[in-house]
Amino acid sequence: MTEPVLAIHNATVSRGNRTLISNLTGQLKPGEMTAVVGENGCGKSTLLFHLTGIRNHDLPVTLHNKPLSAWSPSAMAKQRAVMQQHPNTPFAYMTDEILLLGRSLYKEPLTLRTAWVATVAEWFALTHLLGRDIQSLSGGERQRIFLAKAVLQLIPEHQPLNITPDFHGKLLLLDEPTSALDLRHQRGVMEQLSLLAKRGLSVLCISHDINLVSPYCQQMWVLGEGICIAQGTPQQVLTEPVLTRCYRTPIELIERPGKPPLVTH
Amino acid sequence: MTNLSASAVDMQVNRHIVGRDARRQQILTVALLAVAVSAWLSVSLGSYQWQWSAIWQYLTADDTAARNVAMQWYVLWDLRLPRTLMAICVGALLGMAGCAMQGLVRNPLADPGLIGISGGTAAAAATSMAVLPLYWPAITPFATVIAAFCGALLTVAMVLHMAKRPHGVAVSTLILAGVAINALTGTVIGAISYVADDDALRQISYWTMGSLAGANWLQVAMLSSCLLVSACVFWRCRAALNLFALGEQEAAYQGLNVTRYKNLLLWTVAFAVALATALCGIIGFIGLVIPHICRNLVGVDQRYLMPASGILGSVLLVLSDCVSRSLFSPLEIPIGIITSAVGAPFFLYLLYQQRGRTDD
Description:
The complex is a heterodimer of chains A (265) and B (360). Helices cover 31% and strands 26% of the residues of chain A. By secondary structure, chain A is an alpha/beta fold. A two-stranded antiparallel sheet of chain B has the order 1-2. By secondary structure, chain B is an all-alpha fold. Chain B is built from 14 helices and two strands. Chain A binds chain B through residues 52, 54, 73-78, 81-82, 84, 87-94, 96-98, 100-102, 104-105, 110-111, 114-115, 117-119, 121-125, 127, 130-131, 153, 161-162, 164, 188, 191-192, 195-196, 199, and chain B through 1-7, 9-10, 12-14, 16-18, 20, 106-108, 239, 242-243, 245-247, 249-250, 252-257, 295, 299-301, 359.
């Protein structure tokens, strides 16, 4: 059995003095994509924020068997990258400058950096946007730029260009990465993420678009009522009782052969 | 798109980035030349003319030089040169402090003067100028600098504490707090002017308008060492400032020790502004105008923006000083009035440009 990248042992997530999720236990394994779903305000983003480890919360969460609080900021940043819900900057950075910032942890020659920037930009269909002012981009284009920046942060130092990077042990935390994307780019981003997952990357992805993420993820966590209502494969989790309990609205499931059911209402 | 092993190096991207960097370096080089030209202008401008031949004669003559020659040496060495160097140092300090402040709070309107640092510094320094000589006449020049520094730090701490929000700094509060602090320090300076004796009063009024007239080599030494230290710190923080531009949380996600860099930058800004203000009085708006111009010239990347802000800050202040000396020569207009006359309308223009922006 493979070692988990991130492990949560019976954690209670709270914001201020309000408890949002009690007794959450879960593991993110290498190469696994996990989707976190649940109604608005149920604590998805707060959970993700706690898992980033930038504040000392003393949560029972370990990254590579080491408590989050024991990691130094820079060592942790080489293992996990985060994409926030509405990333933005008030200054007119160029898109390639933003992407280069993703490599700011590493000491590498500029040629290697720019080559990786160009490569990852290609992965997320961003090549035509390089050299543009970030403020002139649409919300969806900006979202993909910041997603590419997060992925760049996880490519190992001095990674040769002709060798595909190994993402085993690396963790990508995403807060609604496809919320502003059109249908083509939703699919493109999910395909690319699952390709990276095949190279060992662990992905935790918050989403409201269950039908988009369910074919790609191996695990789903359904949050609601202050607990984790269900955990398991999409096929196990996407059932009417679970979803009705989570969203408190009638849910209809349309079965599909070989794929998780379509969720609609 | 789905090709994970896209191994072809995109040379076009590399060329684009390298070419842009080269262009920005060229602009920095031209700006450095502008410092030299404006410094030359500042040294040669004035009612008294000096000649190279006379200076050479003064330096090489073994016996006591003619009175005329000694006078020319005095004008160059004791008046013009320290004044020009002081303008260079103060301009660079204020330009870089403004650039750092704007990057730190993520808003192009944050200027050390606008958010009250200059005011706080001035109030503390005025108090020390009026009150300390009564008890402790010997150490006032240094006490003023120390008091100014404490005033600057106190204001920074106060303003930032008030504007602090869970997700960073609220800029509207920051600027409003600056307004309140400027009003408060105006009151303090007014009250102190009212009770101060003539000597202190002259010093204080000369100070609130800013002037480089009292320049001497000791001040140049203090300012240039401060410039050296803060330039090193700002340069070291260039990557951190780029990350801060994406937000404090984003910077933390990328492995930056946010608290450490924030404190380091704030202390350095306070130190730079305090020393500049303590020695030259309030010279406003450099920290607002210069980074804005520089962003249009070299872009927003701090690797180029920070040096450009320092260099162009020097140019602007040296030129302002030339204007202040020559506009109504031999009468001298305080330099703070010149920079405010340029900067305040510029600030209005920036606000005008920002209308329609909803995010704060």
